Amino acid sequence: MATIRIPDEVPSPAQDSETLNKAFRGWGTDEKAIIRVLAKRNESQRKKIRESYKEIYGKDLIDDLSSELSGDFKKAVILWTKDPAERDARLANKVLNDKKITIEKLKILVEISCTSSPNHLIAVRKAYCSLYDSSLEQDIASSVPFPLAKLLVTLATSFRYDKEKVDKEVATIEAGMLHEAISKKQLDHDHVLYIIGTRSIYQLRATFVAYKQSYGNTLDKDVDGCPGDADLRSLLQMVILCIEFPEKHFAKVVRDSIEGFGTDEDSLTRAIVMRAEIDLMKVRGEYFNMYNASMDNAIIGDVSGDYKDFLMTLLGSKI
Q1: Per the annotation, where are the binding residues for Ca(2+)?
Q2: CA spacing 20 to 30 A to 91: which of 130, 163, 172, 267?
Q3: Where are the domains of the chain?
């Protein structure tokens, strides 16, 4: 369930564009007006605002936001205002151009590949080609070491069936194939990649249930105990969690971003922005179940200013 609250009566895109342009004019910027408009509009409405703003003022809204805002507030507003496919394509490209690619950074590619709808993933790949004159899978293959690239390319190029139809017999058979690969210490076996990379989310969840019923342990636990490449093991566990319980994954992302010394604002922003229109209500619930604490209060206690107000508005709070 989404958390953003859209007003019962929404101004026209032209009116919203005028409000935003007025917020940029004069002495200083009216950050609260920007939050009231953009943080309370859905993807379709934000697209119309971008188009209307360009038509009326002859300027790109993202460019004006970039010049008027600053810091983590600026990053969050721009990430939210961009077309989601372009947003994710840019996030992926940033990871792939990093001088040191870590498992923690590859988490973004897993999120895009495993927690998006099939149509969104296709849109991300199209946006990536348009922006960078290269394919996402090509850049993964050339930037990420083997065998991690093998798994990530499989995930990024998948087009999963998105209905709830499940074949329990297939689930049992493929649970056996996964168990055999783990027994042979072959986490990058073609059977593993085929199953994880092509089956629907609902079919895979049925396979994970069949695995536990047949072999006593969860698939995640057996992967964790499999000797071999530690990075591949960690990446595959991340994939399993994103497929089985995406809300738990993002609850963990939020928790990790605000725990310890300092705040990882980029990860916190990404989690809130990516899920605000999808399942952030569930993420909030899982956060409480996992950590016995309020996610909203944890965020309020860790960030401040307009950045805090923007995130909290995406979470459905009134500012």
Answers
A1: 24, 26, 28, 68, 258, 262, 302
A2: 163
A3: 13-69, 104-157, 168-244, 246-315
